[in-house]
DNA sequence: GCTATAAATGACTCTTCAGTCACTTATAGC
DNA sequence: GCTATAAGTGACTGAAGAGTCATTTATAGC
């Protein structure tokens, strides 16, 4: 054998490794949950040996926290951007924009596993759940509630109880992305997120009730 | 010491044990997930020794399956009862009845942990997730879709796409019970499930948009 | 090319539980 | 009361996987 034609057994890529490990770990944690996730599996998917993980993260828990923190930072950046972009447009347009951005940004990316992961592990890592609750959920809620309140004040929306309405607004979208990671494989036909969002928005603004349900029909 | 005043170290209660173990196991599995759940903890909460669990369930996996299967049977009974009770009433009344029953029956009981548990473990136990999907979700969906379709045919509901609308209908309710097991502890004020449902139903039927948003006001 | 050293590894240890088993004890039937 | 036995237990074992470490190897700088 020619030693010079044999490729190196590995490469030194100290800059790229942490990110790659994080991505592999996110996928494994989302699929299996914290306790069932095997670090051998994370290493395999990241293309390194298990011991290499420990060069970058002190232990499994620190890796887990880094995964969530990293995803969190991405989310917060996005939330801030949305908050700025939402501006003072009409409430309807604003909610449409927010939910579209949420679905496009989150639903299609590995990030979408984070809500499921945090919910599943809330009992095991309450500090993490609280962190997520306070930093992501509370901000998202504030944006939605603000938009709702302004819409109500402007006479654009009916006077719903915003403290409960915000969960009704985000519920179907959040459920859709949790669904994706749990049951999508069992659905005969897949789920079209665009279509889901379109139906969701239509029902959110216009309701289910036909407009002529007060006893008289205005149209044939 | 008087040997006759000393209470027995334990009692033989072969009829009650399995049920008690199942209840303790459900609580622990929901809180911690399958892999993190300790059988010592299950035994402690059921008031028995760990070895006693093995008198009634062959191993951890069988116990887990028994927990889900047991909860499933309860759910299916309920679903069948609802299906019968829903009858041929107007769609609006029917959906209100269904969601009320769902919230009252599920939200307040330990059963409410099952959806969270099954979602969290779907990656680890796909057969179980499929079972749940086919037996519980598919039936619930069929009931909602049927009600929607009949309401649309009767002109009571607008002609939404029922294949997507059903998730919008159940989404906020399902999210509420998942919430309860993950984030409720971090909310300043608790969540009033009755109030949540009231807001949910109001928005579901009437939508967010104020009725005078087409440019003209029909009523003062 | 040589060398220093950071990057990476494979084979190891040690802990944590799931699961077992020999033994104890409650209790039903005589 | 005695006894047979089912119900229950505490202390053990074995496996799996997190975490360690001595050794190997890629590569930057000279």
From TrEMBL, chains A, B:
InterPro entries on file: Homeodomain-like_sf (IPR009057), HTH-type_TetR-like_transc_reg (IPR050109), HTH_TetR (IPR001647), Tet_transcr_reg_TetR-rel_C_sf (IPR036271), TetR_C (IPR011075)
DNA-binding region: 38-57
Spans through the membrane: none
PROSITE patterns to which the protein is assigned, alphabetical: HTH_TETR_2 (PS50977)
Keyword Transcription (UniProt): yes
Keywords noted in UniProt: DNA-binding, Transcription, Transcription regulation
Gene3D superfamilies reported in the protein's UniProt record: Tetracycline Repressor, domain 2
One Pfam family recorded for the sequence: TetR_C_11
MF GO annotations: DNA-binding transcription factor activity; transcription cis-regulatory region binding
Residues annotated as domain HTH tetR-type: 15-75
Protein name: TetR/AcrR family transcriptional regulator
Organism: Parasulfuritortus cantonensis
